[in-house]
Amino acid sequence: MNERTLNYFSYYTEIEDTFIRRRGKHIWLSATDWALIETWKEMGIPLHVALRGVEKAFDSWEAKPRKRSVKTLLYCEEEVEAQYAEWLDSRVGAGTEEDGAGAAESTSHGLPFPRPEILAHLQRVRSELLRVRDERLASGEDELSEALARAGNLLVALEREFSDSSAPDAKKLEDSLTGLERLLSDAINCVVQPDQLDAISGEVKDQLKPYRRLMEKSVYKQTFDNLQLKRLREHFAVPRLSLFHL
C-alpha cells in the first residue's frame, strides 16, 4: 500500500492515537473532536501537518504546564491551522514536476483493509440501509426512503465491481461512497421536521459553546455542520458508508 493511500484511510485514527499518546491518559474522543477532524480533512489539511500541529500544541502546553489537563482535541485546533497556513505558504510556486509525481502516485492501487473485510462492510451497510428503508415505508414513501433504496441498489453494483476487479481501487470506491452519503444527507435534510432540526441544532450549539470563541468562524461553521449532520444520521438511523467507519 502506498503512503498516500495509507494516509487517506488512517487520517482519523492517526490523529486520535497521537492525541491520546501526548495526553498521557486514554480518553475517548468526543463527537465534537471527531467533527473537528472531519473539518480538517474537508479543509484538505494533510495528515502529517495535522499531526505536527497536535504535537506542537502539546509541546507548548508542556513548556508551561497548567493545572487543568487537556481534555479535548479543540485545544490543538489553533496550532493545527497555523501549521497548515505555514505548509500552504511553503508550497507557493511548487514545480509541476512535484505535481506530476503526485498525480502518478494517486493512480496506483492499494487496499487499506483486506478485500473480504471491505466487501463485508459494504454488505453490512447495505443491509442496514434497506432495513431503515423498510421501516420508513411502513409510514409511507418519502424522499429518504427513495434515497435509501437508490443507495442500496448502487451498493450492489459497487460490491460487484469491487469483488470482480483484478486491481480494486479503494480510493475510487471511497469517492463513490462519499457520493452516496451526500445523497442520503440531502434526503435527510428534506424530511427532517423543523422542530426536530431546531432541537438537534440547539444540542450542537450547547456542545460547541465552550469552544466557539477559540475557533475561527469558518471552522466553527464547518464543525457545527458536521456535528449536526452526525446527529441527524443517528436520529434517522442512517449508517455511515465510508471505509473510515469500517
What descriptive keywords fit this protein?
246 residues, mainly alpha, 2 domains
Task: Walk me through the structure.
With 246 residues, this protein is an all-alpha fold. The chain folds into two domains: 3-106, no CATH class; 115-245. The protein is 72% helix and 0% strand. It contains eleven helices and no strands. The longest helix has 23 residues, at 115-137. The radius of gyration is 20 Å and the shape is globular. The protein starts with a helix and ends in an 11-residue tail after the last helix. Residues 95-109 have low confidence and may be disordered.
Number of strands: 0
Rounded mean pLDDT score: 84
Estimate nothing, just give the exact number of structural domains: 2
> Into which percent range does the helicity of residues fall?
over 70%
The total count of helices amounts to 11
Residue stretches low in confidence (pLDDT < 50, at least 5 long) are 95-109
Largest sheet: none
> Using only CA atoms, what is the Rg?
20 Å
The percent range for strand residues is: under 5%
Order of helices and strands: HHHHHHHHHHH
The gross shape turns out to be globular
The SS-based structural class is mainly alpha
Distance between the termini: 17 Å
Structure, briefly:
By secondary structure, the protein is mainly α. It has helices at residues 3-9, 11-23, 31-43, 47-63, 77-90, 96-106, 115-137, 143-164, 170-191, 194-208, 217-235. Helix content is 72%, strand content 0%.
Write the layout of secondary structure elements.
Blueprint: H1 3-9, H2 11-23, H3 31-43, H4 47-63, H5 77-90, H6 96-106, H7 115-137, H8 143-164, H9 170-191, H10 194-208, H11 217-235
Helix pairs in contact: 2-4, 3-11, 4-5, 7-8, 8-9, 10-11
